[in-house]
Structures are given as structure tokens and as C-alpha cells.
Specification:
Blueprint (H helix, E strand, L loop, with lengths): L1 H13 L7 H8 L3 H12 L3 H19 L4 H7 L5 H12 L3 H7 L22 E7 L2 E11 L7 H9 L2 H10 L8 E5 L10 E10 L8 E5 L2 E11 L2 H17 L2 E3 L4 E7 L5 E12 L3
Antiparallel strand pairs: 1-6, 2-4, 2-5, 3-4, 3-8, 6-9, 7-9, 8-9
Helix pairs in contact: 1-2, 2-3, 3-10, 4-6, 4-7, 5-6
């Protein structure tokens, strides 16, 4: 898997001044475009599109300082339709416009080339199981919230606190299948998984029961789910679980993620400092 990812990175480098086809990157990595984007952002810590943009502007910056081409030629070569759009993007990365950088020989910022290598850790095993699940519904209260990778998510906390205890009690009574009890469901997550991008969040239950009038629902088709177990400090252990699934489990197992909601069942300790959790992620065999 790592060899294929590195071949995809070489393709990016060879085509920084050309159109980079996401379908070709996925083909080289022998996976789906959806899974490749998610794998990359988990491993690299930045979205794939942002990495490509930074690499292009790093190489363009060297050409700006080199004075061998006009600024418009450089802008066109790296996919910018006008000098103005190139200047805006250039300033966002380097902190200075291309004209000023050329005149003054300003110091520019560089996005290094990325490659992936194996670091053997494996100090703790990851507990998981694979479940075939028929179609079901998620029923509950829904909000649009930003993605936060570490620490508390203020928007999410405020939303959950706004749900009354009576509503939560009614919801729990609807739960009739795994994962049981109240769950948090993250849906329509941006492929980049970039900090601050928005997602649909349901606080509710998995059920086949009729949907109450004051609730919202999401129908989920039948499919395969990888179910991961975690215990530890709240919320860090849960956030790290998501990271470890994409950086450790997927590269080591013959599955890839598919579009769909991700379901988190959390059981907090009485003091709220630790939690036991199950994370359900929709998957398919990587050979498809």
C-alpha cells in the first residue's frame, strides 16, 4: 500500500504543471478516489487538494525568483486563469505577492515533497470486527457542525446540550438494534476531512421504528461495516481512534472506506473524563 501511495506522489510531482486527475491517482494507488482522499488527509495531516496547491506554488515560487519567465507565463503554467488569481494564491501561501517577491528577492515558504514510509509501532492492538448489516434508519436531532480534530467541539457540545432530557429519553426508547443506545452520527463529511469543514451530525439512535414528527431521519442502505472499539481519555481517545483507523488499520487490512455515515457509540465514565466507544465505518473489500 505504501509503495502505491508513493507512486501516486510521484505522479503529482510529474504533473504539477498539468491537470492532475484524481481518477488516475486512485488508479495508481489501486483504490477508490473517495478512499484515497481520506487516506491521504489522515496520513499527511492536510487535504490532498491543499497539498497539491502548496506544491504548485512552491515550484512556482522558485520560478518567480528565477526570473526566466514572465509572471503571467508562470501563472498560466500552474493552472491560474489570470495574474490576479495567481497573485492572490501566491500571497496566501508565501505572504507576499509574486511581483514584490521578484523585485525584492523575498524569502518564500516551501511545501516539501511528501513520501510515506512505514514506522513500526504496534505497541497496542486495535480491537475490531466486521459486520454485515441490513438497511436501517438513523433517527434523532440533526445539526450542521464544523469538524474538529482535537479537543472539544464547542458547536457540537452546544447542540447536544440543547436537546432536552425528555427528548433523549424518547430517543433511547426507539433504539432496537446495534449499535444500541444514543449514538453520534457524522454524515456528509468533506472528503478532505480538513479542520473546520462542515458535516451533518445526528444525535439519535439506530432503529426501524417510525420517525416521530419532531425528529429527522437518515436511511442507510445495507452494507458492510468495520466496528472498532476504544477506551481512554475523553474526547482525545475517540478522536485518535478515527486517526488510527485511517493511518493504521486501513493500510494493513484488505478493506477501503465507502461514502456513508460514521457512527460513534460512546459510554462516558461517571466523572466524564474517560469513555468506552465503538466506531462504525462503512467499508467494502479493497479488491472491488
Amino acid at each position: 500500500m505504501l509503495d502505491r501511495l508513493n507512486e501516486a506522489m510521484e505522479y503529482i510531482e510529474r504533473n504539477l504543471d498539468q491537470r492532475i486527475e484524481m481518477t488516475e491517482l486512485a488508479r495508481i494507488a489501486v483504490t477508490s478516489e473517495y478512499h484515497f482522499r481520506r487516506m491521504f488527509s489522515a496520513l499527511a495531516g492536510i487535504p490532498l487538494s491543499e497539498y497539491i496547491r502548496r506544491r504548485r506554488l512552491t515550484v512556482a515560487g522558485a520560478e518567480v525568483l528565477g526570473r526566466g519567465s514572465t509572471l503571467l507565463d508562470i501563472a498560466t503554467r500552474y493552472g491560474y486563469g489570470s495574474g490576479e488569481s495567481f497573485a492572490r494564491a501566491f500571497r496566501a501561501v508565501h505572504g507576499v505577492g509574486p511581483g514584490e517577491a521578484r523585485r525584492t528577492g523575498a524569502a518564500l515558504r516551501s511545501q516539501p515533497r511528501m513520501s510515506f514510509r512505514l514506522i513500526v509501532e504496534g505497541s497496542s492492538s486495535m480491537r475490531y470486527r466486521v459486520v454485515e448489516k441490513p438497511a436501517f434508519r438513523v433517527v434523532g436531532k440533526k445539526a450542521r457542525v464544523p469538524l474538529v480534530h482535537e479537543g472539544m467541539n464547542p458547536a457540537l457540545v452546544a447542540f447536544i446540550r440543547s436537546i432536552g432530557q425528555e427528548t433523549l429519553r424518547r430517543l433511547e426508547e426507539l433504539s432496537d438494534q446495534e449499535p444500541r443506545g444514543l449514538v453520534g452520527v457524522s454524515d456528509k463529511i468533506d472528503d478532505s476531512r480538513a479542520e473546520g469543514t462542515e458535516l451533518d451530525y445526528y444525535h439519535g439512535v439506530v432503529t426501524e421504528a417510525p420517525v416521530p414528527e419532531d425528529m429527522e431521519s437518515r436511511t442507510v442502505p445495507a452494507g458492510t461495516w468495520a466496528v472498532f472499539e476504544s477506551s481512554g481519555e475523553f474526547p482525545r481517545a475517540l478522536q485518535y481512534l478515527w486517526r488510527d483507523v485511517y493511518t493504521q488499520w486501513f493500510p494493513s487490512n484488505p478493506y477501503r472506506s465507502v461514502p456513508g455515515p460514521e457512527i460513534l457509540s460512546t459510554r462516558l465514565s461517571p466523572d466524564g473524563k474517560t469513555a468506552d466507544a465503538e466506531l462504525w465505518i462503512p467499508v467494502e473489500p479493497a479488491s472491488r
